[in-house]
Amino acid sequence: MKRIIYISLFGILALLSGCGDKFLDQKNLFEKDLENYYRNETDVNEALIGAYSCLAVDGGANHPIMMANLLSDDCFSGGGTNDIEVGGTDKFENPHEDLYLEFYKRNYEGIFILNSLLEHFDQASYDDATARKQARGEAYFLRGYFYFRLAEFFGEVPLDMSSTLEYLPKASTDEIYAQIASDLKMAIDSMSSVTYTNIESGRATKWAAEALMGRVYLFYTGFYGKSELPTNEGTAITQANVVTWLEDCISNSGHMLLTDYASIWPFSSLSDDDHDDGYYYAQNVTWAGDGCAETVFAVQYTNQGDWGNTGRLAYANEYVLYTSPRAYDYPPFGFGWGIGSVNPELRDSFEANDPRKTSTVIDNEDSNEPTYGDNYNWAGWNCRDETGLWNKKYSAVIRDVDGDGTYTGMYYDLYGGTNNMQLWNMQDDIIIRFSDVLLMAAELGSNSQTHLDDVRDRVGLPSVTYSLTALKAERRHEFALEGIRWFDLLRWGDAETAINASNGVPVKTDNVDTTYKITFDSDRVFLPLPESQIRVSQGNLVQNPGWE
To answer: What is the pLDDT of residue 283?
Structure first.
C-alpha cells in the first residue's frame, strides 16, 4: 500500500498564524499555534507530510509532467475542442487568466509550510539525532525542489523565505538558484547515507538530493550560460562537486537499473488473462512496483482521492486520467481525456529493436496493440490533433478480475478506494530515475562511455561512441513522455528547432485530416504568471516577458 498519506496543513497553519482582537482572541481550542506546534518528532512529521501533499496539484491541466510534455515536441495537445487550457500550453498561448494558478499556488503552499517548519525546527525535541537531521534534510530538499519547479516553468519568481505575509517582487535568476543550491546542499549534508531501502518509501533521501543537484546544475549552467552554480554562502558549486555527488549516488545509494525496462511501468503487470484478444502483453516481465530500485524520487498518490468531501481529487493521479486514450476502453488500457497525443516523429525516431518504443507508445498502427485497426475510436469526444498514439507509461491499466467482462482499475483492485475511473489511478509520478543519474554523470564527463553503455545495454542496444549527440538521443528515448525533454531542449538551446520541426505532421481533428501547426515564440518559453497574483501584489509583481 502507498505509504505517504497526504494531508494539507496549509489551511491549518494559515489559521494558526493569524490573531485578532475580538473573537479570534478566544481560547485556542486546538491548543497549538506556530510557537508551540513544532514540539516533537510527530509535529515535524505532520508538517513534512503537509509539504509532501503539495507535490500533487489539483487540476490535471496543471500537472507538471503533462505541462512539460505538451511544451515539448513529443506531444500535441489532444483533448477536445473545449480543452482550451491544454491547447494553450501546447501552442504557447494564454487562453484565459490564471491558467497555471493551481500549480503556482501549490508550490508556494509547500514553501510556506516548510518556511514555518524550518523557522521553528530547533524547538522540536528528538530522541534520535539521526532522525532529526533526516527530517531537517527532507525539509530543505522539498523547499529546493518546489523552487526549482517554479524556476523551470516560470523563470524568475518571488523568493519567499518567511512564513509571514509579504508582497514580493521577482527575485533574480542568480538569487533563486543560489537558494535552491543552498537548500539542496543542506539536504545532502543532513540526510543519512544509508541505502534507499532503509528510508520510508516516498521520502526524500540524500541520494535524491544529490541527483536533483545534478539536474539543477545542468539546467542553470546550460540555459543561462554559466559555469558554476551559486550559493547563498558565496561559494560556488562546481562541475566537479556535482560529479562527486552523482557518483556517490551511483555507488552507494542502492539504486540500480532494473533488468527489463518494461518492468518500471504498471502495464508490465498484465498477462494474456487481463484482456480479451489473447495477446500476451508483457511476456516474461514482472512489474517491479511503485518505489522500485530504479526510482530515486517520486510523487506518491493514495486511494483517498475524491471531489473534496474528505480529501482532494489530486490525491489520485490526475495525470494518468488526462493522458489515457480518449473516450474508449482498450483493455488492458482504460480511457481518459486523451491529452498529449504522441508525435509520430517520436515513435519513428527510436532505433530498430529498441524495446523502449513499445514500452512508451500505445500505437494504433501496431497489430500487437489492443487498439489496432477497427478497434480504435477516432475522434472520440471530438479529439483534436489526434495521432492514434498515446503515452503507455502513464495510461490507466484496467483488469477483468472476475472474468465477467467488467473491468476495473488495477490500482483499485490492489488497494481499494473508490470504484471510479477518475479516482482509481494511483501510479507514482517518477521524477528521477537511476538511469537519469547515470546519463547526467556521463554528460558532465564522468565515466561517460561506461554510463552511456550501461543504459543502452539494459535495453539490448549496442555500444555507441560517446558524444553529446549520442547523449541527446539517448536521453530522449530513455525518458520519453516523462516530462524531462522540454527542459533538456531549453538547456541545450535546441527548443526552437525541435518545436518548429513539428509543423506539418499529419493529425486528425474531429476525424478530419489536417496537419499540426505551431509557432515557436522564444519570448514565451517560460509560462505566464497567474494574473490574479500580479493584481494582489500591490505593484510588486510584473508579468513575464512575452505575456504582458
So the answer is: 55
**Which residues of 374-500 form beta strands (DSSP E)?**
389-391, 398-399, 408-409, 429-433
Residues 145-168: tens digit of each pLDDT? 999 999 999 999 999 999 998 899
Greatest C-alpha distance within the chain:
74
Identify any residues that bridge with 509 across adjacent strands, giving them in sequence order.
512
Matching residue, cell 495521432: 387
Helix (H) or strand (E) holding 383: none
Q: Could you tell me if 168 and 540 are in contact, meaning their C-beta atoms sit under 8 angstroms apart?
A: yes
CA distance 223 to 487: 9
**How far is residue 539 from each of residues 102, 160, 526, measured CA to CA in Å?**
22, 16, 21
Q: What is the pTM of this model?
A: 0.93
Q: Classify residue 150 as exposed, middle or buried by CB count within 10 Å of its CB (0-12, 13-18, 19+).
A: buried
What sign has the CA pseudo-torsion 295, 50, 162, 111? positive
Helix (H, G, I), strand (E, B), or coil: what is residue 228? coil
> Of the candidates 356, 345, 352, which has an alpha carbon nearest to the alpha carbon of residue 268?
356
What tens digit of pLDDT does each residue of 92-127 get? 999 999 999 999 999 999 999 999 999 999 999 999
Bridge partners for 170 per DSSP: 158
Asked if pLDDT for residue 275 goes beyond 80, the answer is: no
pLDDT tens digits for 312-331?
Answer: 889 999 999 999 999 999 98
> In the chain, what is the straight-line distance between the N-terminal and C-terminal CA atoms, in Å?
46
CA dihedral 112, 314, 427, 327 (to 10 degrees): -150
CA distance linking residue 135 with residue 45, whole number of Å: 8
Mean pLDDT of 433-462: 98
How many helices (H) and strands (E) would you count in the chain?
19, 10
What is the enclosing helix (H) or strand (E) of 240? Answer: helix 239-252
Residue 134 CA to residue 101 CA, distance in Å, equals: 32
